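User: Teach me something about this protein's shape.
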Amino acid sequence: VEGEKMSKSLGNFVTINELLHAEKFGGGRWDGRVLRLAMLLTDYRQPIDWTRARLFDAISRLQTFRANVPDKGNLETTEAYRPFLDALSDDLNTPKAIATLHELVKEIRDSGNPSLLMSELANSLAILGIDDLNSFGAGVTYKVEMSDEEIESRIAARLEARKAKNWAESDRIRDELLAMGIALKDNKDGTTTWEAKR
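Assistant: First, the predicted structure itself:
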C-alpha cells in the first residue's frame, strides 16, 4: 500500500469490503469496477502496490472505455476483440489485454463506422467482469489532497500529450483529474486553467 508492505501494525491494512463500503482509503467508497481494473493492471504473478494513483488511473481508463461502448441493448456482435483474447490466452496477461483495449479505443476513434468495434470493446470488458459502464461514475468524485504543483505537473503532461496529438492520454489525464475533483478549462489562448469542484 503506497509503497509499504500492508500490515495491521502499520495501520495501512485495508480489505476489499472496506474499499467498497467505507471511506478508509483515498477518501471515498470505491466502485467495484475500479477495484477490479486496478488489480488486473498488474500481472497475477506480481505483487500489487495499492495506491490512490492506481485507483484514479483505473477510474480514468474506465471513463475512456465508457465513452466508447454502446448501450447494453445495442451490441452488434457477441465477439470480443481478437488481440485482447490473444493476450489473455498468453498466461492470462491482463496488463497486455487491457493495453489492447486502449488500442481498440484508438481504432474506434479513427473508424468511420465504429459500432462493431464498440461492441467488441463492450464484450471484451464483460469478460473481465466490467460491464454496464453507461452507469459508471455519474457524479462520483473522490476527496484528494494534491498540491498546486502536482496539479500543474499533470496539466503540463496533458499539454505535452496534446502537442503530440495523443488524444487518448490527454483525455485520460483530464478524466483522472476530474475524478479527483479538479475541473480543467482549455482557453482560446492555448492555456489550461483549473478549479477544485465543490
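Now, about its shape. Helices lie at 16-21, 32-40, 52-66, 82-89, 94-110, 115-127, 148-163, 167-179. The CA atoms of residues 81 and 121 lie 7 Å apart. If you'd like, I can walk through any region in more detail.
User: That's plenty for now, thanks!
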